[in-house]
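Quick log. Single chain, no ligands specified.
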Amino acid sequence: KEINKIDGVENAKIDFVHSKLSFESEDCDKALTDIINLTKQVEPDAKIESKNKSQKRTIKKQTVKIL
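-> predicted structure:
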């Protein structure tokens, strides 16, 4: 719920079974930075790995793996 409160983040969904987070944003880089900062506050040992590293900066949907 907290991730969806981040400015610019929409449709954030966590798949706990596969340890994945999907979200949409006009600025995925900024949104991902904000998500990482929020995650570190809640779970300092969690690591987030982007699944869309090779895509253009204009992507609007992002999927990350939570390790």
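The radius of gyration is 11 Å.
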